[in-house]
Design a protein that fits this description.
Layout: E1 2-10, H1 16-28, E2 31-34, E3 37-45, E4 61-64, H2 71-84, E5 87-88, H3 92-97, H4 100-109, E6 117-120, H5 131-138, H6 144-151, E7 155-159, E8 169-171, H7 174-184, E9 189-193, E10 200-207, E11 210-216, E12 226-227, H8 235-252, E13 256-264, E14 267-272, H9 282-285, H10 289-306, H11 316-323, H12 330-344, H13 347-357, H14 361-369, H15 372-385, H16 391-411
Parallel strand pairs: 1-3, 1-4, 4-5
Antiparallel strand pairs: 2-3, 6-9, 7-8, 7-9, 10-11, 10-13, 11-12, 13-14
Helix pairs in contact: 1-10, 1-14, 8-12, 10-14, 14-16, 15-16
Bound molecules: adenosine-5'-triphosphate and magnesium ion.
């Protein structure tokens, strides 16, 4: 029997990575024999419309980059997860309820080196007629400066559920503290100790069982943040960064997420890891873009062909049982978490599946990146992103980065 798997994409303004993903899938024209069936794949961009809660969706798997701000698809995702077993790369329930704050709490319990973090009440309280009476009875007065002293300067004030650097400030002293707090208005904020003079800012992008750790420079404009650099962490630190990203993902049932860690000496501090549905654009990922597209194709094919089930439920106690153990060191706990995470992501099975069925995906990606078709996408993306007077500079810039990726793959033995 042949099973045709339709991979749906929920998209907003982006056109670059979806086009690349669609093109790669078309070029690959996968036909995978697994479990006695032949599996083929097609892609489709999902449109937004009224839906019957009992309607049967046509998709086996959905890649979502939209529902984090648009609630119609968000609720549709919950429906297809609960009613139809559609495979979603991120659990929509935890994605909605576990914001940065919840992730900090969970990771502190698991023993990760989260910098000292406090939650402070809103500057402007919620508008609710009950508030004045409630506050007069129960709200303790507090001195913001005292909390900041305890956290220590410099510190970061940032939204408890933040994203895209909105409302994030680095604060050096009491005067700025007060000013930024006054400006925070209705936003609920954390104060978090700054990790100063770190050696490496490592941002890891995870797609299913694979994680790519990239050096990141937050002081650069968006197109220059990811650095093309290899070997910037020693193997043990590199592995620790991968473990942290993968355990966060397994814990929350996310598998399309990025995780930020600051490495100083031999200490790894995670600072931001609730970024499910991360930026996948050619402009920001540049050299790493083909890796992300190829990995998305591999992971989608693996999940759909093997019938991997999406997990809606959590299994927190198994993680806490490790985190709460007194007989394990930090490294010992990390090793246990890695075992759980690798098991959850079926790392072994995935590798075998890739070796058996998908060994030509990287070759096809190199051939695609070197094609005129890809060049047209690159030029169109640059034109859509940068002002006209910068096109002459950025087209060759991106061509150079993508050619460097293809050349590096060839050097590593991939033959298109
Ligand atoms: N504790 C910290 N120590 C040092 N730098 C920090 C710390 N917290 C945040 N930063 C800096 O501020 C930036 C934004 O913070 P954070 O990542 O927490 O916010 P965000 O709004 O989630 O950003 P995004 O979603 O775009 O990654 C980080 O990339 C980092 O450069
Ligand atoms: Mg961040």
């Amino acid at each position: 029997m042949t099973t045709r798997h339709l991979i749906g994409m929920l998209l907003g303004t982006e056109d670059d990575w979806p086009t690349a993903f669609e093109t790669l899938m078309r070029r690959l024209a996968l036909r995978i024999d697994h479990g006695g069936d032949a599996h083929t794949f097609a892609t489709e961009r999902i449109t937004i419309e009224p839906f019957d809660l009992r309607a049967k969706p046509r998709y086996s798997l959905v890649i979502d980059r939209l529902a984090y701000w648009y609630y119609v698809p968000r609720e549709w995702l919950k429906k297809v997860a609960l009613l139809d077993d559609v495979y979603l790369l991120n659990n929509p329930f935890t994605f909605q309820s576990m914001e940065k704050h919840a992730a900090y709490c969970a990771m502190i319990r698991l023993g990760l080196k989260v910098p000292e973090t406090w939650l402070i009440p809103h500057k402007r309280p919620p508008e609710n007629e009950r508030f004045p009476y409630t506050a007069s009875r129960y709200n303790q007065p507090f001195r913001l400066e005292e909390i900041a002293e305890r956290v220590g300067y410099p510190l970061f004030m940032k939204p408890y559920d933040g994203g895209a650097w909105v409302g994030v400030s680095r604060i050096a002293g009491p005067e700025a503290l007060r000013r930024h707090y006054d400006e925070s208005g209705e936003r609920l904020m954390h104060l978090q100790a700054a990790v100063e003079n770190f050696d490496v800012f490592a941002r890891s992008l995870s797609i299913g069982a694979e994680t790519l750790v990239m050096r990141y420079d937050p002081s650069q404009p968006i197109h220059g943040r990811y650095q093309v650099e290899h070997g910037f962490l020693n193997p043990s630190l590199g592995d620790e960064v991968i473990t942290i990203g993968r355990m966060v993902n397994a814990f929350f049932r996310w598998e399309f997420n990025s995780c930020e860690t600051l490495v100083k000496g031999d200490e790894v501090s995670p600072i931001d890891y609730a970024n499910a549905c991360p930026d996948m654009s050619l402009i920001s990922l540049h050299y790493y873009f083909p890796w992300a597209i190829a990995t998305l194709a591999k992971w989608s094919a693996f999940c759909a062909a093997t019938g991997r089930r999406m997990r809606v439920d959590l299994d927190l106690q198994r993680w806490f049982d490790i985190g709460d153990r007194d007989d394990l060191t930090y490294d010992g706990k990390l090793a246990e978490y890695r075992r759980l995470a690798d098991g959850y992501f079926q790392v072994e099975e995935y590798r075998e599946f890739c070796d058996r069925h998908l060994s030509h995906v990287d070759e096809e990606m190199v051939a695609y990146v070197e094609s005129d078709d890809f060049d047209r996408l690159l030029v169109a993306t640059v034109r859509a992103t940068f002002p006209a007077h910068e096109h002459d500079r950025f087209v060759p810039h991106y061509r150079g980065l993508l050619a460097a990726w293809a050349a590096d793959r060839r050097t590593a033995g991939v033959r298109p």
